[in-house]
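Input.
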Amino acid sequence: MSIQNAISSPQAGKHAIVHGGSMAGLIVAGVLSRHFERVTLVERDRFEEGPQPRKGIPQAPHVHVLLLRGLGILCNTFPGFREELRAAGSQSLDMSGDYAWFMAGIWRSRKPCGIRVQAQSRPLLEWTVRKCLLARSNVRVLDGREVIGYTASADNARITGVQIQAPGGGQEETLQGELVVDASGRGSRLPQWLEALGYPRVEETRIHVDVGYGSRFYRRPPGFEPGWRGLILAPDLPKMTRFGTLIPIEDDRWLASMGSWLGNHPPTDDAGFLEFARGLGHPHMYEALRNAEPLGPISLYRFSHNQRRYYERMPRFPEGLAVIGDAFCSFNPMYGQGMTTGALQAEALGECLRQGLAGVSQHYRQRVGKLLEVPWMLATSADLRLPSVEGKRPPAFGLMNWYGDRFQQLAGYDDETLRLFVEVMNMVQSPAAMFSPRTVLKVLTSRPSADVLSRRPEPMAAQAQRTQTA
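Output.
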């Protein structure tokens, strides 16, 4: 996929403020720097020099996926971003050629599909974005400051700035701006702040999934060459809820993550973690990890619920305000959509600003409401396959699941369908492409051969034995 070069944009205003230094906050600050004379990013945490984890990102030690569409937006926002990331050690992986990938009951074909993604730790990814942002002369970062409220016009029809102070107290300060962007995450206090200004409570949907996953960094064993660079063991919902993934990251390390839905979470002791890997249904992850050198403790992260706030449905909403990222919609992280969806929202805000500031809050929230429909549907439909997950099932839910399973199985051995699946997964194709007449016919008439059903990746046990002997 070709990535457009950065395009200069006319100035929409003098000062924009971003509340929150999340990935969505960093990206939108980069977008806003093209449309405003000045941009100020306010973050509660202190930003450390280099790729360091921080308190406000408890999921930092875990696997993060930057889909191809999100990578494209980052490259467009920060020209040279991909090269910066690779120079720092990020690994470039072909989505089908470099992964051993088990899904829908079969091992996928290992033929390269030409769609490459970057694999790295979350701290390295965030640090690289932050470096690119700080290189902008019109961007200022105020870290170690907490937004405690918004200022508004006399009639509360427009947000005019933010009130900030050091976390825990201290002298208050007011920053004035023509646009404030809430990128403060799923714990955003915007619903309460809007109510205090006389606006109705935003409608909200939650779908509880109680996902938990454990992750650990490892040194890749010398001489361990299983024939793949990354491993994905996807769950066969609703029959099996455990999943595992192992990716190569910077500094010749592996990052391994395993988990499950509905409280079936991996233990954080060495023996329990390996035993959880043994229970994934295939031995490959267990055999890879049992001879690898652990680099630090096992980190556990729990995600209680998908959460969507329908700001686009509010009958009244102030001008001068936009919401982005998890503050608008927060997905089950198992599907890897969060960062890319935040990037899509930042891109949408930039496109709205090309028409100027007038009405931008209204135009943007309506546009994002439509933008979120597909990723929300994909994430929640998968979670709702579990009978104990409460939520409204859409019409023809069982039929769509049946077709989706057949499509994913076909992607395991049909090269054309595999590429389409990877493109939809990476948000460079609409899910509607899965229902073209040609694809529907193949899904309905094709069956995997006995060879496909018995296919296995490189014999891991033999590789592990050779490594252990050496």
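The first strand starts at residue 13 and ends at 19.
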